[in-house]
Write a structure and sequence with these properties.
Shape of chain A: globular
Order of helices and strands of chain B: EEEHEEEEEHHEH
Strand content of chain A: 25-35%
Radius of gyration of chain A: 21 Å
Strand order of the largest sheet of chain A: 11-12-13-10-4-14
Largest sheet of chain B: 6 strands, antiparallel
Number of helices of chain B: 4
CATH architecture of the largest domain in chain A: 2-Layer Sandwich
Number of strands of chain A: 20
Oligomer: heterodimer
CATH class of chain B: Mainly Beta
Strand order of the largest sheet of chain B: 1-2-3-9-8-5
Structural class of chain A: alpha+beta
Helix content of chain B: 10-25%
Number of domains of chain A: 2
CATH topology of chain B: OB fold (Dihydrolipoamide Acetyltransferase, E2P)
Shape of chain B: globular
CATH architecture of chain B: Beta Barrel
Number of strands of chain B: 9
CATH superfamily of the largest domain in chain A: Probable tRNA modification gtpase trme, domain 1
Number of helices of chain A: 8
Radius of gyration of chain B: 13 Å
Helix content of chain A: 10-25%
CATH superfamily of chain B: RNA polymerase II/Efflux pump adaptor protein, barrel-sandwich hybrid domain
CATH topology of the largest domain in chain A: Gyrase A, domain 2
Structural class of chain B: alpha+beta
Distance between the termini of chain A: 38 Å
């Protein structure tokens, strides 16, 4: 990771818990992260889909935005950085937002929660410094506060509500993309009903001093096991979710990435606050005329994974590139995401990936690979 | 049985044939194996050639030919059940059998005590 290479790895607030539970640790975005526990990625993945898993995602950046003139001012200001409709985000709700650049590329993808007196922005760990610098530069009238004394836990899977509501009964009433501030053990917990697995679940921001107690209380519940970044990656791939730096970055636009649903109606041509975000010319044009290439799902034939970096070939040569690929534990088959020329992006199109010098047949499929099971 | 620094085990099986697989330690490190690409039977390989590709959920790894020789048989069961490498790495999870000129090539590899010391 370039400029991080010489820095010591940052340690999670739950480092001791991971060690005690036999986690295999590795570097990710400058942090020492649990990649998997004793049972391994496959078992952790399937357990998440069948019951519930606890992920430590405290490496992600938690940023509070405030304005002396009220949170609505902060929301309006932030719209200068994203095509999302944040003015229309009610208190107690969360929204997915892309931070775009002047060329229409994606600086980062973030979750924005309206917590009443502030907006909570959760950004990718690898983009922490860049996003903080960008927000401070672009939003001079907004207070940008990096939260360093909180852990972030993700409880994901169909039993998440049952498990978390035993500690925080209020969460049972939350719906997908609700956000709430709750009290637990004398501290303030910020909970959203969302995640990165395609399952029902919660993301839980907890004061670092309470994090171990909360994690142990959750892991003490029947059916909950810890899961690492390995399973997090295979779960999000099955759910068709992008990883910034891999499936989306400053060379891909929101429309190419199939993320146009995150562009608010109010921000589109004819909307109340049309445009006014970086790259609006290109992005709004692509919305009208269609992009040159599209992010698609690929199902390779056989069992061999078609990983990131694999060239995608049509009958007359190269038509695209795989950005994420691996083996789907739920489907027991390889799955990939790729950008392909828009002419080859229809589900059912037969393409091939160049794997170790040999063409491997693959079919374009709609994303996600598995239907999500959110509580709407 | 002998061992390589790349965590392969080599078991002589008479008639100048050596069975090759990976150790329990290696299988555990790789994690859940989901695909194994084996060489063609009758292929002539040289020591250091990439002969097997192992794909786990997370990553791909190459297995190199430990010695010069001719591949005489590959473990067809791995095509449908690559998880055998995790379940039974020293038995049902073997990769291939290779015919060498002289089983004395095995003398240069580690014995079990030396291998256990290396991974300790």
């Amino acid at each position: 990771m370039g400029d991080n290479a010489d820095r010591p790895l940052r340690r999670l607030p739950l480092h001791a818990l991971h060690a005690a539970r036999g986690a295999r640790m590795a570097e990710f975005a400058g942090w020492s992260m649990p990649i998997r526990y004793e049972e391994g990625v496959m078992a952790e993945h399937l357990h998440t889909r069948a019951a519930a898993s606890l992920f430590d995602v405290s490496h992600m950046a938690q940023i509070l935005l405030r304005s002396g003139r009220g949170v609505a001012r902060a929301a309006l200001a932030l719209e200068a950085c994203t095509p999302a409709d944040l003015v229309g985000l009610p208190e107690g709700r969360q929204r997915y937002a892309l931070l775009t650049d002047d060329a229409g590329g994606i600086r980062d993808d973030v979750m924005v929660s309206h917590l009443g007196d502030a907006l909570l922005v959760v950004a990718n760990a690898a983009n922490r410094e860049a996003v903080l610098a960008h927000l401070r530069d672009a939003l001079p009238a907004v207070t940008v506060e990096e939260i360093a004394d909180r852990a972030l836990l993700a409880l994901q899977g169909p039993r998440s509500e049952e498990v978390l509501s035993s500690l925080l009964p209020e969460v049972a009433a939350m719906r997908f993309m609700d956000a709430a501030r709750l009290r637990w053990a004398g501290g303030e917990i910020w909970v959203s009903r969302s995640g990165y697995s395609g399952e029902d679940g919660f993301e839980i921001s907890v004061p670092a001093a309470l994090a171990e107690r909360l994690a142990e209380a959750l892991l003490d519940q029947g059916g909950v096991k810890p899961a690492g970044l390995g399973a997090r990656d295979s779960l999000r791939l099955e759910a068709g979710l992008c990883l910034h730096g891999q499936d989306i970055d400053r060379t891909t636009t929101p429309v190419e990435a199939g993320l146009a649903w995150s562009i608010g109606r109010a921000r589109r041509i004819g909307g109340e606050r049309a445009g006014g975000f970086p790259g609006a010319d290109r992005i709004l044009t692509e919305l009208e005329v269609g992009p040159r290439r599209r992010r698609v799902g690929l199902r390779p034939e056989g069992r061999q994974p078609m990983r990131a970096g694999t060239e995608v070939m049509g009958p007359d040569g190269r038509v695209g590139l795989v950005t994420s690929g691996g083996f789907s534990p739920s489907l027991a088959a390889p799955i990939s995401m790729a950008y392909v020329d828009a002419r080859w992006a229809e589900p059912g199109t037969r393409l091939a990936g160049e794997v170790r010098g040999r063409p491997l047949a693959a079919e374009v499929v709609a994303l996600p690979f598995l239907p999500p099971s959110f509580k709407r | 049985m002998k061992f390589t620094e790349d965590h392969e085990w080599l078991r002589p099986e008479g008639d100048n044939i050596i069975v090759v697989g990976i150790t329990e330690h290696a299988a555990k490190e790789l994690g859940d194996i989901v695909f194994v690409q084996l060489p063609e039977a009758e292929a002539m390989v040289a020591q250091g050639d990439e002969v097997v590709v192992i794909e786990s959920v997370k990553a791909a790894s190459d297995i190199l030919a430990p010695v010069d020789g001719e591949i005489v048989e590959v473990n067809a069961a791995l095509a449908d059940n690559p998880g055998l490498v995790n379940e039974d790495p020293l038995g049902g999870g073997w990769f291939f059998k290779i015919r060498v000129d002289d089983l004395a090539v095995l003398d240069s590899f580690m014995d079990e005590d030396e291998y256990q010391e290396m991974i300790a």
